[in-house]
Write a structure and sequence with these properties.
The complex is a heterodimer of chains A (275) and B (547). Chain A has 275 residues and is of the alpha/beta class. Helix content of chain A is 30%, strand content 23%. Chain A is built from 9 helices and 11 strands. In chain A, the strands form 2 sheets. In chain A, strands 5-4-6-7-3-8-9-10-11 form a 9-stranded mixed β-sheet, with helices on both faces. In chain A, α6 runs parallel beside α7. Chain A is globular. Chain A starts with a helix and ends in a 19-residue tail after the last helix. The C terminus of chain A is likely disordered. Chain B has 547 residues and is of the alpha+beta class. Helix content of chain B is 27%, strand content 28%. Chain B has a 6-stranded antiparallel beta barrel. Chain B has a 5-stranded mixed β-sheet with strand order 4-5-7-6-8, with helices on both faces. Chain B has a 4-stranded antiparallel β-sheet with strand order 9-12-10-11, sandwiched between helices. The longest helix of chain B has 22 residues. The two termini of chain B are 69 Å apart. The N terminus of chain B is likely disordered. The chains are: A alpha/beta (275), B alpha+beta (547). At the A-B interface, α4, α5, β5, α6 and β8 of A face α15, β13, α17, β15 and β17 of B.
Chain lengths: 275, 547
């Protein structure tokens, strides 16, 4: 064996030791080079547990986080072999408060017809339901992803979810949704067994076009922060929100100019949008 | 009948038992409602005034009647009688009717069934009288009014079986078809289930026995007493049908497992559940059916029934799956002193074709998520599972509804949602570029990811009537608007008679103007103004948040 070949084998072995599940189930690239380069394996690890946090006041509602998760789930299962015809697979979404809105999710690529909502009152029940979802055999038209909106996740429960996801190859997302500031403060920094931890914050939108300035909300944007990543570095990007196919893109305006904080408008007439 | 009314009091004729009676207030008088055998031996009868009874027997122990508890006890007993047949129902305040047609042979005949029932009732300390006859009417009459040596020994409680046979056993009066007329003839006319007024009327014309009424010409009877007497006669003699409405829903299939010794160990109960589901699954497979709802009843020694009820998202006959669902709920079962019978009943059975089995022999169709939904539904409740389905409505909260996961194809995806509603607001139209021509294809107006139901009221400040708020307070937090889109006007669906939009009280036309407002931090809210500017001032709501 040539030295180069043995180096490749060695690298492969090390990678397998470091991230066994990334090897086994592959990754889902974001299609944004900056992000994919920062993630080990070149994308979001499939068959793993990913935590998504809201930011600021959105920790209570997780709206941006839900949009982010919907955009990813829209592109699952990644393996085209697992997509048979129109059977894109079910997204099991377990939540406490039934405020998920189908047409809104569709704008981020997730067909609401794929979603099965399960409502549970307690965090324990939500975690149990997620684990049940992860224990189903991964098959075409089966469960493509499970998403849970949960407040408290004990370390053991997170570990169980991660193991179940690794075994079945189904990708799991935890939207950390906290009812109160106290709960958020207690839970925010807690370590977890998840492969990655993200924080999604809404950014002020850019005007639709710089040339002919139209009043109103332009392209909505997110600040996507990768807070923690097994085998990777923390990073942050300013992105345009997931579009109708679930794809993200780097905020175009960033290349030209700094994202200056929008000046609070003094004269209300400015936002007379088009009316 | 009397002894059951006294409820807790064992009806067995223990000689050492003191005379006891329950008392009911009736028309300002205290009457005996029921008496125990000791009191009966002293000459007391139900319906006797309490004062008279006490003059006979000063030491009589009395207790007020507890009608509600008695009714509850009778209902439970009727439910317990479900171990003999699915068609059971309480009858009046003191009887239970059981339709045993087709189930008597499982017990080795009617006599054996009656003997078993009688023995178990005795063990529970319930005095009873059993009668089995072709019709409900005949059984009712015989159980209450027939006097035999056997019935004398047992205490009278009405439990009767409309079915035939020609045996007279110690346990029950069993009358065959041929004997019915002869058996009914000597009974008093009250045995025909008539109003007291009718009974009195018959007495007044000298008709005291059923046989005497039978001999009368029908038209004369009908002229004098209406058709009730004739109808009751016909019902008792099987000339008129009389359906029995059972206590619960009648199951499609039932599987019964009886135990020689009562069982109480949860592991045994689990094994029983497995056995029964296995039997049921075999039966269902033979018939090409699948069960949607199952009820596993544990019949306890003390005459109570503990139920486990499960539902499945789609018809199933997978024994392992069904057993798992049932066993998952075993912790809700209190076996008490022991369980004698377990009965598994399948309701809502649907056709289920032969199943595709995987190459490896593993059960379960490809992409089949139904077992998962069943497990989730068993713990969270089947109504906790829902799908988001689009609806053709431009009212946001009606455009997407959560439909409970039901019987339709679970693993399949529905066709893509209908196009989103078109806004009617002038501003929205203009924004979509129909004037400027910048965007030639009309875009769907954006919709939020979270929609609050009901919309949450906010305290808003705005300048011009058509403006979105420049500041609003929502959930104890103040938001300053930085940019906004809108309005998108959404009006009431005038063709919907009962649709009243939230927040529209006092606002003619029930009109909402939606604005997309981005605050300084970048969060995008979906706000609407309910009502038109003017008096009363419009109110503002947050309806959703965009991702």
């Amino acid at each position: 064996m040539s030295p180069a070949a043995s180096l490749v084998t060695l690298r492969d072995r090390i990678r397998r030791i470091e991230r066994p599940n990334a090897r086994r189930h592959g990754v889902l690239p974001f299609g944004v080079d900056a992000m994919d380069n920062a993630l080990p394996g070149g994308g979001l690890a499939l068959g793993g547990l990913h935590e998504i946090l809201g930011a600021g006041a959105d920790e209570e509602d997780c709206a941006a986080a839900a949009g982010f998760a919907a955009g990813i789930a829209a592109r699952l299962p990644a393996d085209s072999l697992q997509k048979q015809g129109d059977q894109a697979g079910v997204v099991l979404w377990v939540l406490k408060r039934g405020d998920l809105y189908g047409p809104g999710l569709a704008e981020h690529g997730l067909d609401p017809a794929r979603i099965v909502l399960a409502r549970a009152r307690r965090d324990d029940d939500i975690l149990w339901a997620l684990e049940e979802g992860l224990r189903t055999p991964h098959s075409p038209g089966g469960i493509a992803a499970v998403i849970g909106e949960v407040g408290r996740v004990p370390m053991v429960a997170g570990r169980r979810l991660q193991l179940a996801a690794e075994r079945s190859g189904i990708t799991a997302f935890l939207l950390r949704r906290w009812q109160s500031g106290g709960e958020a403060a207690a839970e925010r920094e807690r370590p977890s067994a998840a492969v990655t931890r993200w924080r999604i914050a809404a950014l002020p939108s850019l005007p639709p076009s710089v040339a002919d300035y139209e009043p109103g909300i332009g392209t909505p944007r997110w600040r996507v922060e990768l807070l923690r990543c097994r085998g990777g570095e923390a990073a942050a990007w300013d992105l345009e929100v997931a579009d109708a196919t679930g794809a993200l893109s780097l905020s175009a305006a960033l290349a030209d100019r700094p994202a200056a904080p929008r000046r609070p408008v003094a004269e209300p007439q400015i936002w007379r949008a088009a009316g | 009948m009397p002894s059951l009314k006294s409820g807790e009091q064992p009806g067995n004729a223990h000689s050492e038992e003191p005379p006891f009676a329950t008392v009911i207030a009736s028309g300002g008088r205290q009457l005996l409602a029921a008496v125990n055998p000791a009191a009966e031996a002293q000459g007391l009868r139900a319906g006797m005034p309490l004062a008279d009874a006490l003059s006979f027997l000063p030491g009589l122990i009395t207790r007020p009647v507890e009608l509600v508890e008695d009714a509850g006890a009778l209902h439970r007993l009727a439910e317990w009688c479900g171990r003999y047949s699915p068609w059971t129902a309480p009858d009046g305040v003191d009887g239970i009717k059981i339709e045993i047609t087709g189930s008597a042979h499982l017990w080795g005949g009617e006599a054996a069934l009656a003997a078993d029932l009688s023995q178990r009732l005795n063990r529970q300390g319930i005095a009873h009288r059993l009668a089995i006859a072709d019709t409900l009417g005949a059984a009712w009459a015989l159980a209450r009014f027939a006097v035999t040596e056997a019935a004398e020994a047992a205490n009278p409680v009405g439990c009767k079986f409309p079915v035939k046979t020609a045996n007279l056993t110690a346990a029950a009066i069993i009358i065959s078809t041929g004997e019915m007329r002869a058996a009914l003839a000597p009974l008093p006319v009250a045995a025909l289930r008539l109003d007291p007024a009718l009974v009195e009327g018959l007495h007044r014309v000298g008709l005291r026995r059923v046989g005497e009424v039978l001999a009368m010409p029908r038209d004369a009877l009908a002229r004098r007493f209406g058709d009730m007497v004739a109808r009751r006669l016909d019902q008792a003699l099987d000339l008129l049908p009389e359906p029995l409405s059972p206590l619960g829903e009648t199951p499609s299939w039932r599987m019964r497992l009886s135990f020689v010794e009562p069982i109480a160990d949860p592991a045994d109960l689990a094994r029983a559940a497995e056995r029964l589901t296995l039997d049921l699954a075999a039966r269902l497979a033979r018939e090409g059916m699948g069960a949607r709802r199952l009820d596993l009843g544990f019949y306890r020694v003390d005459g109570r029934v503990e139920h486990i009820r499960i539902g499945t998202a789609r018809p199933s006959r997978d024994p392992a799956h069904l057993a798992k669902l049932l066993i998952g709920k075993l912790d809700t079962v209190d076996p008490g002193l022991g369980v004698e019978d377990a009965i598994l009943a399948a309701f809502a059975v649907e056709t289920l074709g032969p199943e595709q089995i995987g190459m490896t022999g593993a059960a379960g169709a490809i992409g089949d998520t139904a077992p998962l939904f069943d497990r989730l539904g068993a713990r969270l409740g089947l109504d906790a599972l829902a799908r988001l389905e689009p609806r053709a409505s431009h009212i946001p909260e009606r455009a997407s509804v959560a439909v409970a996961v039901g019987g339709t194809d679970k693993g399949q995806c529905r066709p893509p949602p209908q196009p989103s509603p078109v806004p009617t607001g002038e501003g929205a139209r203009r924004r979509r570029g129909e004037e400027s021509g910048a965007m030639p294809t009309p875009q769907k107006p954006p919709r939020p990811v979270r929609l609050f139901q009901p919309p949450e009221p906010v305290e808003a400040f705005w300048v011009l009537p058509d403006d979105p708020p420049f500041r609003f307070a929502w959930r104890r937090r103040t938001h300053r608007g930085a940019q906004a889109d809108g309005p998108e006007r959404i009006a009431e669906e005038w063709w919907q008679p009962d649709g009243e939009l939230v927040g529209a009280e006092g606002c003619p036309g029930a009109i909402r103007d939606y604005y997309r407002v981005e605050d300084e931090a970048g969060r995008r809210f979906w706000l609407f103004r309910a009502g038109l500017p003017g008096d009363p001032p419009p109110r503002w709501f947050v309806h959703g948040i965009f991702a």
